[in-house]
């Protein structure tokens, strides 16, 4: 993605964390436009006013400046993001990422990148999650992933078409009566389920194939 057009909204009510996150983002993406919000109300106003490439959301935030931060408010904000902005790339920061289990179905269906960053991560690790999300990739805690041998039926169908019949994504989409973007979305979810993520110098398709063979989803 061209850094010149990246627009990021950082949502966190802790001034120190907010400033630290923004400083790290500005170093990583010097040409990005980075906005901030400290409450759900503020974030909603910003999201309604601008088209963002990425939202970084602290799970525990207040509804307004007069109220205390609560994880329920962050959960409700994420529900809104999933409903209104299905292609928005999202990074969730939390010390209790397991609370996202309440949104598992919505996370599975979300078309944009979606990564979870525990607040115990280093800034560099957090930036890695940001980069993954901007690529449309997913990284979720184990509690949110399907077990590798229990992948969804439509994912298994896509795997068979790709690796057993050698079809490309447009052809897979036609055979499955899905859009190409939906098929691409399948691959991000499949890779997250089997814990395969983009790495510099490595072919993502080959890494996916090798892992699927290793865990017994397909045989060669």
Automatic annotation (TrEMBL):
Keywords on this record?
Answer: Phosphoprotein
The record's section on Pfam families has: Response_reg
Show where the Response regulatory domain sits.
Answer: 7-134
For the keyword Phosphoprotein, the answer is yes
Q: Which PROSITE patterns match?
A: RESPONSE_REGULATORY
Highest taxon above the source species:
Bacteria
Query: Any one Gene Ontology biological process term?
Result: phosphorelay signal transduction system
> Where does the record place the modification 4-aspartylphosphate?
58
Q: Which PANTHER family match?
A: HTH-TYPE TRANSCRIPTIONAL REGULATOR YHJB-RELATED (PTHR45566)
This one is known as Response regulator receiver protein
Organism of this sequence: Stanieria cyanosphaera (strain ATCC 29371 / PCC 7437)
């Amino acid at each position: 993605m061209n850094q010149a057009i990246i627009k990021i909204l950082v949502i966190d009510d802790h001034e120190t964390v907010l400033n630290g996150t923004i400083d790290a983002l500005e170093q990583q993406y010097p040409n990005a436009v980075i906005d901030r919000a400290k409450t759900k109300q503020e974030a909603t106003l910003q999201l309604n006013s601008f088209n963002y490439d990425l939202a970084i959301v602290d799970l525990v935030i207040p509804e307004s400046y007069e109220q205390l931060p609560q994880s329920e408010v962050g959960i409700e904000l994420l529900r809104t993001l999933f409903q209104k902005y299905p292609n928005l790339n999202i990074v969730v920061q939390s010390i209790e990422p397991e609370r996202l289990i309440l949104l598992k179905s919505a996370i599975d269906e979300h078309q944009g990148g979606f990564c979870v960053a525990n607040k115990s991560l280093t800034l560099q690790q957090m930036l890695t999650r940001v980069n993954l999300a901007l690529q449309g990739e997913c990284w979720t805690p184990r509690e949110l992933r399907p077990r590798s041998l229990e992948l969804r039926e439509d994912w298994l169908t896509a795997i068979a078409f790709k690796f057993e019949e050698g079809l490309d994504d447009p052809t897979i989409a036609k055979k499955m009566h899905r859009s190409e973007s939906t098929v691409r979305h399948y691959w991000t979810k499949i890779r997250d389920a089997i814990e395969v993520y983009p790495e510099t110098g490595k072919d993502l398709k080959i890494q996916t194939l090798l892992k699927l063979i290793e865990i017994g989803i397909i045989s060669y």
